[in-house]
Design a protein that fits this description.
This protein is mainly alpha-helical. Helix content is about 60%, strand content about 5%. It starts with 9 loop residues before the first helix and ends with a strand. InterPro entries: Trigger_fact/SurA_dom_sf.
């Protein structure tokens, strides 16, 4: 397994951007990848998900609401710009669907008693930074980290987004453990659980979004 796959947070927080533009090898031509990632780095500095969740949007700033979540115009506009960098053919729709899933899953996770402590977050960030420093020694560089002046700067800036992503993944892991009870030890050893979990997770995520009953205003 390559060390890039060991980084806990970068992939989970930046699902919308995709991993393809985050890394390059010093022996390869980075070219456009770095240009796109630099643009994304600038966008992340205005990430609306970093704002205090307790701040209530005024009515004219609300794009969509669900039974328990709210999506603001600012969040949709920001996420749309992110998807434009991925060459999405329908960036606004992709952005809307992404936010619906992220917020619905986070709400479900917290309602089921899941959270991420400061200590857990500190350990995850420390792991990511140490893993990346080792990657650099082996000649592999993360363009997004470098645009922030290093892994530590980026991880610190994205700390609260990371907390939400980790909370979601905790919840998903618990559901996976429940799902695993339908498999024998032999089936798990043969990889059948991993093979089927991806589809099962997508089914669960879709159901949670539907249950939230999100409507554009």
């Amino acid at each position: 397994m390559k060390k890039r796959n060991q980084i806990l947070i970068a992939g989970s927080c930046l699902l919308a951007i995709g991993g393809s533009i985050l890394f390059y090898s010093k022996s390869d031509d980075a070219g456009q990848d770095f240009d796109k990632t630099k643009a994304f780095a600038e966008l992340t500095r205005e990430n609306p998900y970093l704002k205090n969740d307790k701040l209530k949007p005024v009515n004219h700033d609300i794009y969509a609401t669900g039974d328990h979540i709210t999506i603001t115009d600012e969040e949709l506009e920001w996420q749309t710009e992110v998807f434009k960098l991925t060459n999405s053919k329908v960036p606004e729709e992709d952005a809307f669907n992404f936010i619906c899933k992220f917020k619905s899953l986070y709400y479900a996770a917290t309602q089921n008693g899941f959270s991420t402590s400061d200590e857990e977050l500190d350990r995850a960030i420390e792991f990511n930074v140490e893993t990346y420093e080792q990657m650099k020694k082996e000649g592999e560089v993360d363009a997004l980290y470098e645009a922030y002046g290093g892994a530590k700067n980026y991880e610190d800036a994205m700390r609260e987004v990371t907390r939400k992503s980790m909370t979601i993944e905790k919840y998903m892991s618990s559901l996976k453990e429940e799902y695993a009870q339908n498999f024998t030890e032999e089936q798990i050893a043969l990889g059948e659980l991993e093979e089927k979990w991806a589809d099962k997770r997508m089914e669960i995520e879709k159901s949670m979004v539907e249950q939230e009953n999100i409507q554009r205003q």
